[in-house]
Each structure stands twice: as structure tokens, then as C-alpha cells.
Predict the 3D structure of the following.
Amino acid sequence: MQYRRPEILIVDDLEENRKVLSGNLSSIDAELYMASSGTQALELVSKHDISMVILDTEMPEMDGFQVLNQLSSDEETQHIPVILLVSQLSTEKQKLYGNIVSLIDIVYKPINQTLFLAKIKKYLQLHQYREVVKHRHDENEKLLKAIHEGVLGIDSNGIILFANASAGRMLGKNPAQLLGVYLETLLEEPHHKAVSEWTDHPIRKACLDGNILHVKNSSFRRKDGSKFKASFAAVPVSDMEGMEIIFAFKELAADKKNDEKLSELSQRDHLTGLPNRVRCEELIEESIARAKEKQQCMAVLILDLDHFRNINESLGHDMGDKLIKFVVERLKLAVRETDVIGRMGGDQFPLVVDGIQRPEDAAGVAHKVQDQLSKPFLLEGHEISISASIGIATYPACGDSASELIKNADTAASRGKLFGGNNYQFFNVEMNTLSIERLELESQLHYAIDRNELNARVLRMSHLDTDALGGYKLEVVWNHPKKGAIEGHEFRSLIECTGMQVPIGEWSLKTGFSEFKKGIDGGSLSNDQTLMIDLAAVQLMQDNFVDDVLAQIKRYGLQVEKIIFLFEENAVLNRTHDCRDVIATLHDKGCKIAINNFGSGFSSLSLIQSIPVDYIVIGTVFSELESSKKAQVIVQSLVSMAHQLNILVVAQSEISVSREVLAGTGMDYLLQ
């Protein structure tokens, strides 16, 4: 039988990219549609029976992630396979769109043609078998699009030839990943043999006799190893391009009627499944007893979501409930497995932090919670931002009973709301003073430039093997009138928290160039050496930044090739493709590029592939070099790789490792 040709939609705002992609598919018998925007793509999807979408992420107005969200949110289009073309998948995007991204295919740029075509062919196989199933019976098309019905096409060897989108969602994979998988491996059985025994499997035996096998309750395994209950029907078929069985399954609702479940539910919050107030008080008392026995501290944190009522009133209580569930998932990422998260109703969550060495450790947990909540949530197409006020009460300083610790932590959380929310407060007044001092510092930093409290300090960049001068590094120091010198990591942290990267960055550039020029003219600095200056990625987003900085270099009579711009690794990774374009332009103009704290993030290697890099700076993440053989091997391998890429390696001044050990790794320079 002649089936419908596949219809492939290519979505990219650049015409040349669309031409390249269509050229890559020239050997494939398919109808190609082109869209130059997300809006146009959605229009074409509504008009045609699209078999597959090849979607670029970097587009103006509506980017690829937003298009993907629209497609996956619509019952009529969520079955369409998508190949997402990305330059880099940031942590924030992974968290925001994680549930969607995990069920599609991602191809990184520059595109590997062989891998790209292999993925295309898998999806064309899905299209082919989808058409076979559809033409078998008119009702099958409804079944294939059904949200809660998984459909698999199985061959005579028990191998999956076809899977619909719902099967992928229930099993935790995208449909293409299920192709070639043995059905046996998805079923929860006493044990799985190393070799398939499909020929003797009860499902195949029943179908070979021409019978439709119905099973009301069976166990399946998802990709992550978790189990779920489902009913299924195995239907024998013939003349279907190699498919022998159509296997349809539907997840069952959990049985909550047994006595054990009812007993557990009496201590659980009905929406989230977390311990309720009664159970939390029991767990807090148990934690106090352990802390008393071991002579340790423990803490209760009460987390109140800020302005949650506004979300309920504007988007409805159903949306509010969904947000609560997402918040819980983020909270789980911020605490240890041994800690307890509860819900006391509404938007209030108690956290029980067990076995801490000192009360200040609870502040670290609060920081992690705030960091998790700082990223927006994606709810049915809405990006929602929310923060929390966190109150902290510790044992034994703030009470020795569950009720007292909860009450005091709640009081501290209320105080946090009075400060405007999005902060944490200790119930203990002395500890609160530490938090207030930090807020005061952040406030005072805004006036540091006007009050001439910033100074420039020049560090030597010396060769590790000879101690010969290799260049200079400008370090900005805040001479606080009461605290004295604030510099290094502490100063950089303050700058990020206050959003002062641009004005302090401008001061740093102007002062650095000026002091470098004065040193050269005065004979204290050498014109042959380089100057390294910190740049925040946000500075690059300023209009005409490259032209302005090049004009400054020229104004001071400096050589552009002697200027090294130093970026924090995480800052670059969290920025857009435009930011990397600006870095590349600076490099093309002659400036050198350096990455600070290299190795502290999880995408370090992908970073040096996406931007030109001349130097990497190793920081305190490798401070265990002297005591850890493993750390030495890692750094030696890193240095070797860098040298093969013509990248020089610099050790930070803050790293607490002897010069001999650093030289032994092969590093080139030390800042001091």
C-alpha cells in the first residue's frame, strides 16, 4: 500500500540555515515546509499533518523553547516528534523545560551530519509505522493521539518498531529511544534473562493463537527504574510491515484504599504527599533527641512563599496547586536526603535540618533554597517567578521543643516578609545581626564609587618555573570605612548580589587602562607585558561595548593584543549566544580571552568549544592539590589538554598550594 509521504517542518529565522538543513535532507523522500519564525511554524502545524519538526532554539520574539512548549501543551500537536537544534543547553533552560526536553531529541551545533540523519531516519520509521497503524482502522488515529494511551508496535522477536508519544511519556523516553528495545525489558518481571525469551513469552503465545490478551493490572518500568501499574491489551495483527502485535497500555490510578495507605495518608499532606504539621512535629522531636544525644545542633526552617495569594487569584487555585508541587521538587534539590521537607498547609513549608555542626550551617540550606527558587517556573505556557521568606530557629539556641522551634522560625519568617521578602532571618538576635550586616554591605556598595572607596591593586603574573614576569592582573579592592579591605571572592559575590557589575566594571576598565599607562610611562610597569582585567558578561550586553572598549584602549595608547579580558566561567555559561558573539568579536579585534575559576562548573569543556580562549585560570576548586593524588592527576590532564589547544594555564592568587606543586602540574603562571 502507498502511504502518505512524511511532512517535515524546518524552523529557523535565518534563510541560509534553512537552505543548509533542506540540503541535508535532499536524499530523503519527504515534503519539506519552511518557517522563519515560531508564529509561522505554529500556523503551518495547524494547517498540515506534520510528521516531524526540526526546530532551532535561537530565534527572536518566540524562541524554539517557547514553540516547543506550545506544541507539547496542545493535545493535537504533542505527538509530533521534535529535533531541537541548540548551541548550548543552559542549566536554567534544563530546569525550566526539563520535563519537555527529556522527551525530545537534541542536536548540538555544529551539526554532525551522520548523527543528524540517523535521528531523522528513526523518526521517519515512526512516521511509516504510524501510517500503517492509522490505515488499519479509522479509530486508530484517535488512539495514537490519545494522551493516556500508550501504543507500541512489536515485531516477531519482541522488538519495538513503533511507539506513540504517550508511550514515551509514560516510560520516560522519547518515542525514538524506544525503537529497537525489547518489550520484555519494560515489563516488571521476577528477573530478566540476558538473552530474550520472547518466543516462549505468554504475551506472544496468546497472540499466536489469534487471541487478544487483556491484562487488567501489570507492572512496568520507566527509564529511571521507577515502577507503575498499567492495564494492557496485546492485539495480534498481520500485513502490517513486520509488526506482529499492537500493544496498547494505560496507567492505572494508585490504589489508596488499603489500610496501610490510609494510615500513611493521615500523616501526609494530600496535595504533595509531604509530612503534615502533626508528622513534622514528631520528626522534629526525633531530630532534637538525636542532636541532644550527639551534642550537635539541628534547625527548623519555615519557608513562606512571597505573594502566593496573587498567583491563586490571577491564575486560579488549580495553577497554584501545580506551582506548589513544582516548588516541592525544587526544595528536594536544595536539601540532603536525610533532611525533612513538610507542608503545613497553604504556602508554608517546614524544613528539618538534622545533625549540623553549628547554627550558621542552616544559612547555607536557606541559600540553596533561594537559589533553587530564583529560576522561573513554567506552568502551562506561563513563566512564573516566585521567592520565599525563610525563618530559621536552631536547637538549642532557639528552643528545645518542636512547638517552640516552629513558632520561633515562623516569627523569623514573618520578620523576613517585613524586609520585603526573598530573604532569610534567624530568630536568634545575634545571628540576625550577621544577616543585617550583609544587607548593609550590599546597600553601601552602591555608593562606593561616589565616595572614592574603590582602589586598584596590581598583581604580578609570574612564570611558575622561572618566576620571570609574565604580565599583570588588575584587582579591584573596596576599602570599606569600617570593615577595611574587601576583595577577591567576597567582593565579586557582593557585586553580583547588588547588580553593580556594569558601573564597577566601567570603573575597573577606565582605572585599569589609566594605571597601566601611568606605570609604563613611569617605568614601574613594562610595555611588553600583558594586563588582565575582569569583565562581567552583563557588560557585553551594553550597546556599542566593543567599540567603546577599543576606543579606550587606543585613547591610553595601549596595545590591544596586550589586553586580557577575564570572565567568570558560570557568568558566560548563563548568557545567550549574543554574549559569545561579542567575546568572539573582542578576540577577532586582537584582545585575549581568559576564563576564571575554570573547572568549577559542569560545562567547562563545552565552553572552550563555544568561545575563543587564550588563558584558563584555576581557582580554589583544586585547593586539595597537595593532599589529593586524584586532584593532581585531574589538573595535570587539564593542563595537558589546554596546552594542546594553545591555551595557557594560570593559578589564582587565592589558591592555597605551594609553588612547587603548582609547577609540577605543568601550569604556566601564578598570580601573586
